[in-house]
Each structure stands twice: as C-alpha cells, then as structure tokens.
Amino acid sequence: MRLDTLGVDESVSILFPPAALADELAFLPVSTTVVDGSGGELHGCQAVVTFRHWDAYDDLAWVHSIQSGVDQFPFDRLRAADVALTNSTGIHGDAIGEAVASYALAFSRRLHEHVANQQDATWSPPEWDEAWTVHGERACVLGLGTLGRGVVDRLTGLGVEVTGVRRTATPEPGVETVYTPAKLETAVSDARFVVAAVPLTDDTRGLIDADVLAAMREDAYLINVARGAVVDQSALIDAVNGGSIAGAALDVFETEPLPESSPLWGMDEVIVSPHCAGFTDRYHEHVGSIVAENVDRIRADEDLLNRVV
C-alpha cells in the first residue's frame, strides 16, 4: 500500500478540530493535511481519517474511522474498491465507563432531579426513601469488549456487582457470571442497571426489545451507550411510561439528533445526552496513536491494527 499523504477529514470536527489531529500526526513520515471528503477534495491523499463516509473514498487505499462503530460505512463497496477500513476500538473504555458510572450515580443520588429543580429555583429534597447508594447493587453489562470492560471496571470500583452478556460464556475478570444472548432475559432479570455496550450488527439490532424490557425489574434502569438501534425505542418509551422499568439514560437514539417531538425529552426518569459519552479532550491523541501505529505498519508491510474490512 502506497502512502505519501494522509488526510484528516473535516467531519472529525464533531469530536475535535481537524487541525488538532493533523498537528498530533505532524511527526509521521508522511504528509498530513485537512481535507473535505464531502466535496471530493482529497488533495492527492491515499488515506483518510474520518467520522463520515463519502463517495470520494472509493479512490483511497485506507480509511480510518475515529469511532469504534463502523455501521455507517459500506463494507461491500469498500471491499469492491479494495479500500482497507480500520476503526478506533480500544480508546473509548475510560470515557464510556465514567459516563455510565455518572448515569448510575445520577439516578441513585437523584442528581437529575436536583438539576431540573435548579432551573425553576425549587428547593425540593427527595423523600427519605428516594435516594439510595449503588454499593451492593447489581448491573448487567451487555457486551464485554473495550466499552464493556471500561464499564465493568468503574462499576465494580463503586461496589456494584456485575454480570455480563456476550457471544460466548468465557469468564471475564470482575464479572460474576457471563451469559450468552440466548439467556439475555435471565441475565437482565436481577439487575438494577442494564447497560448496552455492544456494537450494532444484524444480531444486536433490536436486541433490547419489549420482552427483554418486561424481564427487567420494575426499579431497574436501562443505560444505552451502544447504538440507538440496539434498543426498540418505542418499547422503551412504553416500558417507562407504564412503570415496568424505572427509567433510562440514553446517549444514542434511533434518529439523531433526537427529534424535538420525541417524548423522551419530557420524561422525568430519562436522562438524554447527545451521543457524547465517549467525548474527552484527549480524543484526538487516542485516535492519533492508532493512526500512527498503522502508518508504521503500512511502511513495514504488516497487517493493520483494528482492521474491519
């Protein structure tokens, strides 16, 4: 694979300034430049680091996604054009883990209520039995990859007992019991928190449906830091409105941005965040480390790290 010029697409600005990553990669033995793939302006690049896929990428040798999820990339088309695709798996565990811990603590300590009351200058302490501690509670983490591992580490640090779900029941450090998806309803049935941290695939689309929600405890909270389509959003709204679960913290949605008309905005026991659980001021540094490693591997004619296609 020939690599003389590496582009940083403008689309990465959703997470950090393109120039910040270009500066981070300035030490590489290739030229690095900011490009606009939406307009086909690739300035002779053979590779690009991007948030979005553009048609112009058919002419490249390598595309790197700054996200772990790559469901927005056309795998078949990239294969046909002989374009390698890599992702940023491995860099999000700390941020996602802390975000999930924050959601759990917000619910238990009723912080979301206090923030809402502050907007109305309302002094309203919770009832004596409304606030609780997460220590000794149980969480079920769906997906024990990098994201799930970050969640497990943070929650166990808070004294939460953790079970997990993944394709094989291989034991995982810090996880009391690992279930397979065939036992998903059993896995979630005894958890105060059910955390979705799986990639979006054909197998995980709609994974958390009405049956799974019905299997959850009435005082349980769903936390979704995976992809919106992993959860049946209509079924979730019904479950919260009907009181079959206590609430949800959602960072991802079926449609993004979340439409103003969505009832999720006005639900007291739902925390909405704008797909930002993985945000950190060092995001560009973490992406840069993977990109730099793969530039070295290309020059050494070695297999790419985190190759998806």
Question: In a nutshell, what does this entry contain?
Answer:
The protein has 309 residues and is an alpha/beta fold.
Walk me through the structure.
This is D-2-hydroxyacid dehydrogenase. It comes from Halobellus ruber. This protein is of the alpha/beta class. It has helices at 18-24, 75-80, 93-109, 111-119, 146-157, 184-188, 210-215, 233-241, 283-299, and strands spanning 5-9, 31-35, 47-50, 62-65, 84-86, 138-142, 161-165, 178-179, 193-196, 221-224, 247-250, 270-272. Helix 8 links the parallel strand 10 (221-224) and strand 11 (247-250). Helix 3 crosses helix 5. The model has no long low-confidence stretch (mean pLDDT 97). A 7-stranded parallel β-sheet has the order 8-7-6-9-10-11-12, sandwiched between helices. The protein is 28% helix and 16% strand. The protein has 2 domains: 5-91 and 280-299, Rossmann fold (3-Layer(aba) Sandwich), CATH 3.40.50; 93-272, Rossmann fold, CATH 3.40.50.720. It is built from 9 helices and 12 strands.
